[in-house]
Structures are given as C-alpha cells and as structure tokens.
Amino acid sequence: MSKSTYEKEVTEKMKKTVVHYEEELKKLRTGRPSPAMFEDIRIDYYGTPTPVNQTGSVTVTEDRTVVISPWEKSLLEKIEKAINAANLGIHAINDGSVVRVAFPSPTGEDRKKWVKHAKDMMEETKIALRNIRRDDIKKVKDDQKSSLISEDESKKAEEEITKILKEYEEKSEAVFAKKEKEIMES
C-alpha cells in the first residue's frame, strides 16, 4: 500500500467524521428553530417510520415558530403527538390545518447548556479522529512488518497521518466555534 493510499484513506475517514459532527450539530437546539431538529422525530407514514420533516413542508417564521403543513390532513395528530413525545422542551399545537411549534427565547443558562453539549460532541469527534489515526498507524506498522512498505515509508506515512489528524481536529474546532457563535447570538 503506497503512502498516498494511506493519506487518501485517512483523509476520507476523517472528513466523514467531521461532516457527521456538522450534521449532528444541525439537530442541536439553539435559539433559532431549524427544520433539521425534526429529522429524528418519526411518525408512521403508511407503515414506514418517516421523519416529520419529510411528511410535509416545514417553515420557520420570524417569531421563532415552526409551521409544519403536512401533505395529508390525517397526519396532523400523529405529527403533534410525535413532537410532544420527543421531549425536546417544546410543545406542538395542531390547529386543524397545520402544526405549530413555538420556540421560546432561550435563557442564558439554556445557551450555556447547548454550548457545553456542542463542545462535548466536538470532544467525541476528536476521540473518533484519534481512533482513526491509531487504527491506520497500526495498519501502516503491520504493512511494514509484512514487508509491504519500508521503515522510511512507514515513518513518513505515520507523520502524514498525524498531520492529517491535526488538520481535522482544527476543522472540528472551527465547526464548534461557528456553532457556539450561532447559539450565543440567536
């Protein structure tokens, strides 16, 4: 296995890890409501568990309210019950034509709690990145023991893997900083 193959593999894995972190942060509640918050809330839609945000149009109004207009009126009650049962600290109201979810303005304590959760998620991401580095360095050393690569190639590959780790740790920190700013400003 060539050095560049190691780098490509590690880069791809680390990139996916940071992208996953970004996707998870979209679901994190902040002061601003987001349709992504409803991705994990599912209802039974013709026998298939379907995310609420895929059962109708989801819009966010200026007054921190999410309005869900289901494609079928029969889904109104299911959507309302699923959101209220999700324990997100929000309450859905079915008015007969749409489901409205009002988001109260967050307190300073709420914001601190959300930032702490985002930071904890970043630390988990960094641990995942380090585990990728550990596993791939082990693979490099195994290839060296099997005489597939030389000792020099092994050392260079390890240095590159560590360099890639630093790059993706910095990217995860930048993602966190952006989310922290969003939470504190909303």
Structure report:
- The chain has 186 residues and is α+β, with helices and mostly antiparallel strands.
- The protein is built from four helices and six strands, in the order αββββαββαα.
- The strands form two sheets. It has a four-stranded antiparallel β-sheet with strand order 3-4-6-5, covered by helices on one side. A two-stranded antiparallel ribbon has the order 1-2.
- Strand 3 (56-60) and strand 4 form a beta hairpin.
- The protein is elongated and about 70 Å long.
Task: Provide keyphrases for this structure.
single chain; 186 residues; alpha+beta; Topoisomerase I, Chain A, domain 4; 2 domains; two-stranded antiparallel sheet; 4 helices; 6 strands; 58% helix
List the topology elements.
Layout: H1 3-27, E1 42-45, E2 48-51, E3 56-60, E4 65-70, H2 76-85, E5 91-94, E6 99-102, H3 108-145, H4 151-185
Antiparallel strand pairs: 1-2, 3-4, 4-6, 5-6
Q: What is the N-to-C succession of helices and strands?
A: HEEEEHEEHH
Number of separate strands: 6
Total helical segments: 4
CATH homologous superfamily (4th level) name of the largest domain: Ribosome-recycling factor
Summarize the structure.
This protein is an alpha+beta fold and 186 residues long. It is 58% helix and 15% strand. Helix 1 runs antiparallel to helix 3, helix 1 packs parallel to helix 4 (151-185) and helix 3 (108-145) packs antiparallel against helix 4.
